[in-house]
Amino acid sequence: MTSDPLFPPTAARLARRYRVGTGHLLYVEECGPASGQPVLFLHGGPGSGCNAAQRRLFDPQRYRAIFIDQRGAGRSLPLGETAENTTPDLVADCEEIREALGIDSWIVVGGSWGSLLALVYAQLYPESVRGLVLRGIFLGSHEEIAAYAAGLPQLAGDFGENSRSTVALTPLANYARRILAEDGEATRAWLNHERQLLGEPPLDSPPDDRQQAKARVQMHYLTNDCFLQPGQLLAGVAYLRHLPGVIIQGMVDPVCPPSAAQSLRRVWPEALWMPLPSAGHGALSPPIARATIKALDWVAGRTAVN
Fold it and tell me: Any idea what the Cα angle at residue 265 is, between residues 263 and 272, rounded to 5°?
């Protein structure tokens, strides 16, 4: 077995923008044959957008892979926009795009933030989902968000400008205030916090427009409880447990620790559980990519006759 399980790089077969809501233009691209088994890929973040390397997870001869840059992210416009940008909005967009593309139902693949979005979508529109491949589970809980923000470097100016409050903002709230106000120092520190967790070097230049937009959208979601009720995703598993599903989890993931995946597994024992003992968070790392490709083929085999 080679060390690189990914398929060769491919170009998008189609790319276009769709107008959703009252001011968003979503970038959507398709790869693989139009007659292939349809798959929706949900990127992480929130706010990250899709990239060409992610196409390599999908067999270009077998799957019609659909990639959507979510509202405010990637190549969607307006970049970094947080108005009309909530989890229900993103889920409704998936369903609108599915109908626009003439797809009856599709397999949904999502990791990290994408796993949360995939769960919400499948719980609300189970008839549109053939199966689920979830990686690096994130359920949007206070505990997960607090754990992710732990260790943030303190910024100068913990008190809100023009505020008479004597109570300091929490580190996450302080970052959110400054990032949403286009503070480059806070944006860079936030992005470098994530890069440190992933074992990547810090940014060697100020954040570019897409990186700034990613941080804005992340703060918008993380400080609004990801627009979910506490425990919503675990309670909603009852609506999707009939679907074939796979839970892939790197057991040394520093971004989405295994506790969330284990909680999901407990309420969804029918799902195929694929713990990867030495794997971290990166979707394209060999162990996780190999597991994702294997899991997708397994789900596709279960649903090919549907």
Answer: 160
DSSP state of 281: S
Angle between helices 142-149 and 209-222 (to 10 degrees): 140
The answer to whether 49 touches 218, Cβ cutoff 8 Å, is no
Domain positions in the chain: 14-140+228-303, 145-225
Residue located via tokens 């899991």: 295
With bands split at pLDDT 50, 70 and 90, how would you rate the model's confidence at 158? low
Q: Is the whole model's pTM more than 0.90, yes or no?
A: yes
247: DSSP letter: E
CA dist., res. 55 & res. 13, Å (int): 11
Evaluate if residue 279 carries a pLDDT over 70.
yes
Measured in degrees and rounded to the nearest 5, phi and psi for residue 215 equal: -65, -40
Of 190, 206, 213, the closest CA to residue 70 belongs to: 213
E strand or H helix that includes residue 143 = helix 142-149
d(CA 63, CA 33): 7
What are 192-227's pLDDT values in tens digits? Answer: 999 999 999 999 999 999 999 999 999 999 999 999
Q: What is the pLDDT of residue 170?
A: 85
Topology annotation, domain 14-140+228-303? Rossmann fold (3.40.50)
For residues 43 and 50, the answer to whether their CB atoms sit within 8 Å is yes
Catalytic annotation present for 112 = yes
Residue 165 is among the residues annotated as catalytic for this protein: no
| Known catalytic residue at 253 | yes
Walk across the sheet containing 106-112 and list its strands.
Answer: 14-20, 24-31, 63-69, 37-42, 106-112, 129-137, 245-250, 272-276
Contacts of 117 (CB under 8 A, 6+ apart): 42, 70, 87, 90, 91, 94, 110
Residue of 112, 115, 128, 141 marked active site: 112
